[in-house]
């Protein structure tokens, strides 16, 4: 009896310790494997129930890729984000008397500009791109704007734009709203910018001193089950169609077709492509524009889910790729915390190489032919370190000394994204300088040495 009394406290300690170990294992498994339920996008047949506040308009997805403030002979990064600037401009101004300058009177783009806001536009889709950003009654006569200057002259606001043919247009800005126009010229004094002019006359700005940026980590919390995704695609792309059938699914690939349209989903990559799915394609008699493409995406998969958007993810209009075999592709690029995201390209579901850091909409001028995208969702971004990026002179020196600069058409700071296909499905965002070289985005310091690999890949 005495021996039992002495041993009893030890038994209780062992029992408590075992309980704590089991509880810890269970909590770890839950944290590792838990995935919130995916919220399906409303289909076309449910237009009356779609929350309009969650839809996008063309003027919401087109914003400048860069904004800088001119202060006499110096140039600084803007204190405001391009999105904030666009809100002030749209709420404050209307443009008028916008017309090309006579050839004999054309100044340098920066002549007489002491204080001004310069906006570098994304590669334009159509000449009316500017009208999505600045209200007013004017026509650009088919000219495509590349850069815009908003400046003061004799206490009046003016606008100057340079077009893709290097012609210069000027106009007046009438203040019609209550926006804080003084905020347009707020500069970040700690970030001096350097203008870079490329061989095709395009211009953008890069920081003189490379910034220190966070390295980011996140789990993909989206649904990756083939059956769940096929049900979502059936409801979204083939509502009420009795002819839809599943096509010989592989171990990680599922596909649906009604004999004309095809929807494919790769669970390994958590990405999909929808082909020949144009709405009202047999009735359309006008060319597709940006408005119709934005509307198409709204009701065929939508944009970024609410949780990811709250973490700083967004899809922004990026460019229009040159027509290939009669097709044009509108590119919406992922951004994280305001920085663009880049990835390598490889074949996807036995098709051409696809950059999965983008949402791409292909059209033939009369109808949308395909959408290719991933389904990444994140509910928390974790900072796992910092990286001090190189200074501007080092970046330019690397490109010039290697003979690559003449093939470069743009330099940007952004994130390389990598996706690991193990059970936890986590992503990493690594900051770097990226250059668009021969139409392909690559890290400035790797070029051809950037080995081909998927954005979505397994552990190596």
UniProtKB/TrEMBL annotation:
Gene3D superfamilies: YycH protein, domain 2. The keyword Protein biosynthesis does not apply. InterPro entries: YycH (IPR009996), YycH/YycI_2 (IPR042274). It comes from the Bacteria. Residues 12-449 form the Regulatory protein YycH domain. Pfam families: YycH. Keywords: Membrane, Transmembrane, Transmembrane helix. The keyword Transmembrane helix applies. The chain crosses the membrane at residues 12-32. This is Two-component system activity regulator YycH. The gene is yycH.
